[in-house]
Amino acid sequence: MKTLAIRAALGLACAFPFTGWAQAPAWPTKPITLVVGSAPGGSNDTFARAIGKKLSESLGQPVVVDNKPAAGGVLANAIVAKAPPDGYNLVVLSSTFTTGAAIRNNLQYDAVKSFKPVAMLGKGPMLITVSTDSPYKTIGDLVAAAKANPGKLNYGTSGTGSINHFATELFTDAAGIKLTHVPYKGMGPATTDLLAGQIQVLVASAPSILGQVKGGKVRALAVTSAQRSPVAPELPSLEQSGYKGSASELWWGVLAPAGTPQPVVDRLNTEINRIILSPEMKEFFLKEGAEPASMKPAEFEAFIAAEIERWKKVARAADIKAD
Question: Taking CA 113 as the corner, what is the angle to CA 255 and CA 162, rounded to the nearest 5 degrees?
Fold first, then answer.
């Protein structure tokens, strides 16, 4: 009887940890969706597809990119914010997520509380550009002309509250100059008007403007990152040129719905960081005007919160309000 009792006790002792393990949900067991708030071909979409392909290979499940190009990414963000927090619906977004949150009170989600940051993908500078017909050959030339003619030089953006709007306001504040804002519905028409001389300045992302620079139609004067960037190593940074406090960069990242289990978030973070730091992906990012930027989930969460607060201060100082 004693032998039977001992065996029974041992059996129960072994069963409890095994049962706990067996009840832990396996992940992933089905396809993962990366929701993108822009049309195919944009930088968010390009990075989502590149990362998605590699994630599919490492996780053993299909990774599908679902484009929801509406309301400047708000629709895509809302879809993921309201999705089940199980790691199967993620959103790939960029800096506009934080600039939008800084000036809009009517979002369908809380930019901090509704999401669980998973991983940053990359960072890249914006370029201060003028047309090749412009008399401004350096950033100093542009600042001198703006100081001599307050408000007479126009700068374009992809829209009020966009990251290039905020970046330009940071620059003008640091340089002590006044430029007149001309918002467009996207970088395409803004670039067209820069070439036509309708606007004199355009602060644009490397993916959207480098082709025009390399084609000799647009002249780049500086980058907005704190230091020179390997994306355009020949250009000085605004900070290095003496305009302190003007540094800003585009960034791209992945968020999950709030409440997503930490083990799932950690697994995704590990896989994404491994992918973006591979030599193949470093080369890919550089061609797209960015550098890989790995962060742990907690670091990325703190970064997003700090960015929103930073842009709120800029919005108040520059009187930037949502349309």
Answer: 65
